[in-house]
Amino acid sequence: MAGITIYDIAREAGVSTSTVSRVLSNKASISDETKQIINKIVKKYNFKPNAAAQSLNIGTRIIGLMVSDIRSGYFSSLTVACEEAASSRGYTVLLCNMLNKYSLELDHLEKLYAQRVEAIIQLGRRTDDIISDPSYVKHVRAITQNIPFITSGKLDGVDYYSVKMNHTLAIRIVIDYLMSLGHRKIAFIGGEEKSLSIYEKKIEYIRMMKEYNIKLPREFFQEGSYNMPSGYNCMERLLKLAAKPSAVIAVNDECAIGAIHALKRHGLSVPDDMSVVGCDNTVFSQFTWPQLTTVEYNYPLFGDSLVNTAILAAQKKNPPRETILTPSLVVRESCRAL
């Protein structure tokens, strides 16, 4: 077998990569039977451990984490949660920030593979595409022959594990809440329609409007991005409409904050003139004026679930292929009853 790795040896021996590493380095007490099995495979393939990998102790207790953009409140909060969860289990997170650029995605993926991390967690970018990119799928499929791949989205055609938020339920919770306050003209702002999470939210938004027998103008769904300027610009467009919404759901807290700034610039009050709801309950939500009503994503649980799935997969302990987390609503001051 050409190019055999420590992962190939671990798979054939039916043990973890850390066990193979300990046998090769003679750093821990391993049963004689396990040693014999591993050494037999090593001899069979004439395996020569990479000196650099041994010196870095790669393949033992290191998880690769690829993040779409660490500057985002959502991704930074989830990254910290993953690091805390990994640290509590004696693991280290090797962070790769994609800076919201597709061009960096494959580079980071290959670097993590070269470092022989035990598992790779990817948050965002191509794993949040509605239609998975065939070229990227091909690269990840090759890597998953040796390293488990975990994501908060999806990647069709790949043997992966998914830990994700129930985005459909998130939008349902918000709309039900706004409806209970008497709102019927509800807009949705921010995010890219090619994003899976945005698509799921939009579909549920449309479905619920039909359920409540409400027909809204197409302009009430304003596509944008995920930052404060995007929220500001989306709100500016809404304010130019003849029939304005009474409430706005933003794709995330940062977008909601941008929308609030636009309203204040026009001399309008939140929530007296318009109610605003965010999503993800980052630290920003508590320091707006008024404090932001938002959807809670429970980052400690989210990060813990991602890391736990990665570790169990690396240890071949068969974690669930899909874990769906339940969001909740945090009611603060940015909404009012009509």
Give the key terms.
434 Repressor (Amino-terminal Domain), six-stranded mixed beta sheet, Rossmann fold, 15% strand, six-stranded parallel beta sheet, 338 residues, alpha/beta
Structure, described:
The protein is elongated, with a radius of gyration of 23 Å. The protein is of the alpha/beta class and 338 residues long. The chain contains 12 helices and 12 strands. Helix 5 crosses helix 12 (299-314) and helix 10 packs across helix 11. The termini are far apart. The chain folds into 3 domains: 6-51, lambda repressor-like DNA-binding domains (434 Repressor (Amino-terminal Domain)); 62-164 and 300-325, Rossmann fold (3-Layer(aba) Sandwich), CATH 3.40.50; 167-298, Rossmann fold (3-Layer(aba) Sandwich).
How are the secondary structure elements laid out?
Blueprint: H1 6-13, H2 17-25, H3 32-45, H4 51-56, E1 62-67, H5 73-88, E2 92-97, H6 102-114, E3 119-123, H7 134-143, E4 149-151, E5 161-165, H8 167-180, E6 186-189, H9 196-211, E7 221-222, H10 228-239, E8 247-250, H11 253-265, E9 275-280, E10 293-296, H12 299-314, E11 322-325, E12 328-330
Parallel strand pairs: 1-2, 1-3, 3-4, 4-5, 5-11, 6-7, 6-8, 8-9, 9-10
Antiparallel strand pairs: 10-12
